[in-house]
Amino acid sequence: MQSAEKPSLYDRLGGVYSIATVVDDFINRVMSDPKLNANPLVDEAHHRVPPAGFKYLVTEMVCWATGGPQKYTGKSMKESHSHLKITAQEWEAFLGDFQQTLDKFAVPPDEQAELKAIVNSLSTPIRHPRCYRPTWWLLESSRQPHSFGCPVSLMKHPTIERKRPMGRSRILLSGAPAFA
């Protein structure tokens, strides 16, 4: 547990089994999304990797990022996505799929906000630089002065790099799901 007052996001989400169930639905949704697969590079990547392995890595990363005991072992987000040339529209479609999954499993609003902050902190290394338009949900630093706008449990992890764009704070995770 993170502290006596509030359990980690990992615990509040129900641990690895609940997270794996949600990831299973989300990856099925993402891999069959026609808006994402309209990009031939993404479509090829979706058909090149076995879904079970991809789901494993995403589950591992979500568990790690939310304060669970798992350690993410995949490639960095930049390394695994830079060649895919993901556009702003494709990123928005991905976020829409994410929201549909969160809604399907009735993830509470506070936990949704924390998960969205994690996902959106990965926008920069995933999206193609010339297609970049900020879409991540930034949390005001003043609301969470010691967490740099992300869950406190993430700030304790040694591989998180803190960035401060335009006077606001966000995080970038050094690891992310890989398209092998």
What does this structure look like?
By secondary structure, the chain is mainly α. It has one domain: Globins (Globin-like, Orthogonal Bundle), CATH 1.10.490.10. The protein has ten helices and two strands; from the N terminus they run ααααααααααββ. The protein has a two-stranded antiparallel ribbon.
How would you describe this structure in keywords?
single chain; 180 residues; mainly alpha; two-stranded antiparallel sheet; 10 helices; globular; disordered C terminus
Spatial strand arrangement across the major sheet: 1-2
Given the helix and strand composition, which structural class is it?
mainly alpha
Which CATH C-level class is it? Mainly Alpha
Helix-strand string: HHHHHHHHHHEE
- Mean pLDDT, rounded to whole units? 75
CATH homologous superfamily assignment: Globins
N→C terminal distance = 33 Å
- How many H/I helical runs? 10
Helix percent band: 40-55%
By CATH, the topology is Globin-like
Under the CATH scheme, which architecture would be assigned?
Answer: Orthogonal Bundle
Global outline: globular
Number of strands: 2
Any idea what the radius of gyration is?
16 Å
Largest sheet: 2 strands, antiparallel
Q: Tally the structural domains.
A: 1
State the low-pLDDT regions, or none: 130-180
